[in-house]
Design brief:
rod-shaped
Length: 522
């Protein structure tokens, strides 16, 4: 190769921070790229010639044995060996990392030459060390928070059960498996632990995450040998890779203790509310007396009138028929007021002496449809009247994929039925008589919002809180406990309820958090 070509090649290698070294072992004479000496903190020798000893002296004392062993393993015309070790600069003592590809070659005279290609990878190693340290800090932080991690190259949960997934070591322990040092697990291992009643819901929710923005969170049960049922919370994300594939990563943690505490808290809240209702009986008594005074006073008056008329039995047969009709009318009115008083007492009893809550998972769609069916059965003359023009239209809108909520079935049905019947009262006599019950997932799927809308006159401005007060009613025969009971039930489930005026009617919303929702990954 012409000299000018060699010079250009040497300059190119120097600019790429790659240096060539050739040392004749018998004489120790060494020829190297001039820039190599500068990196070692040495003055470049004349003509780039030095000795092998000068180079060897720069090897870090702790790495010399390893460097010597690699050199000793070289064989004439044998394969190159790749190694790395530290060097110490001669001028300032700074430590640099060098990677070396070296070989032993014979020249035309049979002399042995140690030839090497060297490059400085100190910055690469520093970045690698920082990355390792960062990953370790993240691992420690995740573990300290009680989380475990997974990393799946294929994100589709409907895929092959044998698809590999990488778990953190504490995830194995969380699901009751022996730790695999490599972290390799399989989808089948995860599926084996998930509670059968939760599997379909989790997979459906995961599919929504894959087809949506890729984010999800979930709570579901697992069955762990010797530990029973545990509750798991998962958060993750589906990543779209540059090659078109997908990958899922995420965090999981065992929330059994937290979940049990929430259940106990709800139970205590329910008891506290029932106790509060009992303590409020005294205050209710005055209002109840006011409610009952009217029917009881009317009963007394009608009975007194009947008694008086009985003592004044007419002797004239012509007047007997009218007299008898008046006595019967007084007794009939007294009977009606008796039923009214009984209804008042029954409604108070139902509101005060509520039974112990029986929480269970209930499909959202079934909850809505059952409430509508109960409302229709309660008021058949409204929903299926003899005159079609007087019919109230009741529409239920709740998709089958809304999953379930963890509630007391009867109580939540009572809330929906109360709101539906209130809406029916609001649309009576209106040109358009329509009541619509809807259910939607909100808060990124972590809650379910129920809404009952009507085509009535709507709500007055500023009446939102006042309408939920006990004994406040606009109905002639009402006690004003309907919305107050609804709020008590909703809040005992950790939710909230509110009203909104609409352009053509009103709507009542309530939101329930769903601890058993959202998908997870294995």
């Amino acid at each position: 190769m012409p000299t000018e070509h060699l010079q250009r090649l040497r300059r190119a290698l120097d600019e790429a921070t790659i240096w060539l070294v050739d040392a004749e072992l018998e004489t120790g004479r060494l020829v190297a790229s001039p820039d190599l000496f500068a990196v070692l903190g040495l003055q470049p020798p004349p003509n780039g010639q030095s000795t092998l000893a000068v180079l060897q002296q720069r090897i870090h004392p702790e790495d010399r044995a390893q460097a010597d062993s690699v050199t000793a393993a070289l064989r004439p015309e044998g394969p190159s060996l790749l190694t790395a070790h530290r060097v110490v600069r001669a001028d300032d003592g700074a430590v640099r990392w060098m990677r070396i590809s070296q070989a032993l070659r014979l020249d035309g005279a049979g002399r042995r030459h140690w030839v090497a290609v060297m490059w400085d990878f100190t910055e690469h190693r520093r970045r690698d060390n920082e990355l390792v340290a960062s990953e370790e800090r993240l691992r420690l932080a995740v573990a300290a928070g009680g989380f475990a991690t997974w990393d799946a190259v294929r994100s589709n949960f409907a895929g092959d059960d044998n698809d590999a997934v990488i778990w953190s070591h504490n995830y194995f322990a969380m699901l009751g498996y022996e730790v695999e040092p490599s972290g390799r697990a399989s989808r089948a291992m995860w599926r084996k632990r998930v509670h059968p009643d939760d599997m379909a819901r989790v997979l459906q929710a995961w599919e929504r995450a894959e087809n949506g923005d890729g984010t999800f969170s979930a709570k579901y049960r697992v069955r762990v040998p010797d530990q029973g049922e545990r509750w798991i919370e998962a958060h993750g994300r589906v990543l779209r890779m540059p090659d078109g594939g997908r990958r899922s990563v995420g965090l999981v943690r065992d929330i059994t203790a937290q979940y049990d505490a929430e259940l106990r808290l709800r139970s205590l809240q329910g008891r506290a509310m029932r106790t509060s209702r009992l303590n409020a009986v005294g205050a209710m008594a005055a209002s109840l007396a006011h409610e009952l005074n009217q029917p009881l006073g009317a009963i007394a008056n009608y009975n007194a009138a009947a008694m008086m008329m009985l003592r004044q039995h007419p002797t004239d047969p012509a007047a007997t028929e009218a007299w008898l009709e008046n006595v019967q009318a007084a007794l009939r009115h007294a009977s009606e007021q008796t039923r009214r008083a009984a209804d008042i007492v029954r409604r108070l009893r139902d509101s005060v002496f509520a039974s112990e809550p029986n929480l269970s998972t209930v499909p959202v769609q079934a909850l809505v449809e059952e409430a509508c069916a109960v409302a229709r059965a309660s008021m058949p003359a409204v929903f299926e009247p003899a005159t079609p023009a007087a019919r109230v239209e009741l529409v239920a809108s709740a998709a089958a994929d809304l999953g379930e909520v963890f509630v007391e079935h009867a109580q939540l049905q009572q809330v929906l039925v109360n709101l539906i019947l209130n809406a029916v009262e609001a649309v009576r006599g209106r040109p358009v008589r329509r009541v619509q019950v809807t259910a939607l997932r909100v808060e990124d799927g972590r809650a379910v919002r129920f809404s009952v809308a009507d085509s009535g006159p709507g709500f007055e401005k500023g009446s939102s809180e006042r309408l939920f007060e006990a004994f406040l009613t606009g109905k002639p025969a009402g006690m004003g406990l309907g919305l107050a009971i609804c709020r008590t039930i909703v809040e005992s489930h950790g939710g909230r309820i509110w009203i909104e005026p609409e352009a053509s009617g009103g709507v009542v919303h309530f939101v329930l958090p769903d601890p058993g929702m959202e998908p997870a990954a294995g």
